[in-house]
Amino acid sequence: MATKRFPVPVSVRSPVRLAVLILGGACARAAPALALDPTRFEAEIQAFEAADRATPPPQGGVVFVGSSSIKNWTDVAADFPGVAALNRGFGGSTLADVVYHSDRIVLPYHPRLVVLYAGDNDLTLDRTPSRVVADYRAFVAHLRSALPAARVAFVSIKPSPARRAYLDRMRETNRRIRGDIARDSLQAYVDVFTPMLDAAGQPRPELFGADSLHMTRAGYLLWRALLAPVVQ
Fold first, then answer.
1. Taking residues 143-147, what's their average pLDDT?
2. pLDDT per residue over 59-71, tens digit each?
3. How far out from the chain centre does Cα 61 lie?
4. Each residue's pLDDT tens digit, 3-36
């Protein structure tokens, strides 16, 4: 496939962004309790932009983006030597938040690959698997509108002990996103859900910290092994 670059849209008035915002507004009107203001992360986004001005990151690398499981992966660059890996995770974020801020923390780097982990927090906010899938599709569409040749690796929602009550919804969300990805050669599904379960089908405690939610180094080493074939 020939690679063709298009200017990166920076305005929220782009058709895809506008559609996402309209959809978000409709969801907010239907279920006000689920509405979260994406600008609550403005300080973190501005910090990324300040870091970029101070030390411009390389173009055409691998951007890791998503919620705290990405943010806390502080060794991500060292874990993938020889890869221009950039961490742009912001804790507590949802997939809709990643879509909203992608013009500022994904597209400017013209990545060859985006490693995305999000959707975990969404389910705890009572967002349905259908909503999470729709937000994932919105992310891919927005990325493709600017960077048609960019690849996406979706890291499946992980089965943390603190969120056992959501395991079935996680499975359903992962299954549906995996089905979408199977139809697109520029997307990859990275299954971390299954290897993070023990023989009884429960989350492996050694992979999680004291809060039973965030991962230990052992968890990240597992992710590194699973992602290496895609990232490298």
1. 97
2. 999 999 999 999 9
3. 16
4. 333 333 333 334 344 344 434 443 333 343 457 8
State residue 195's pLDDT score. 98
Q: Could you tell me the end-to-end alpha-carbon distance of the chain, in angstroms, rounded to an integer?
A: 19
* Centroid of chain to Cα 196: 18
Strands 113-117 and 85-89: unpaired
The answer to which of 26-35, 165-174, 189-198, 210-219 has the lowest mean pLDDT is 26-35
What tokens appear for 203 in the block? Answer: 């989350």
216 contacts 209 by C-beta, under 8 angstroms: yes
Contact assessment for residue 226 and residue 190, using Cβ atoms and an 8 Å cutoff: yes
Backbone angles phi, psi at 140, to 5 degrees: -60, -45
215 three-state secondary structure: strand
φ, ψ (nearest 5 deg) of residue 147: -130, 80
DSSP SS3 for 122: helix
| Residue whose C-alpha is closest to residue 151's, from 181, 191, 121, 196 | 181
For residue range 177-204, list pLDDT tens digits in order.
999 999 999 999 999 999 999 999 999 9
Residues 112 and 107: their CA atoms lie apart, in Å, by: 10
Q: How many residues does the chain have?
A: 232
Dihedral (Cα; 129, 132, 138, 141), 10-degree rounding: -70
Hunting for tokens 């780097």 — which residue is that? Answer: 109
- Beta strands in 76-222, from DSSP E residues, in sequence order: 85-89, 113-117, 151-155, 187-190
The answer to whether 197 and 160 have CB atoms below 8 angstroms apart is no
Two structure tokens written together for 165: 């009550």
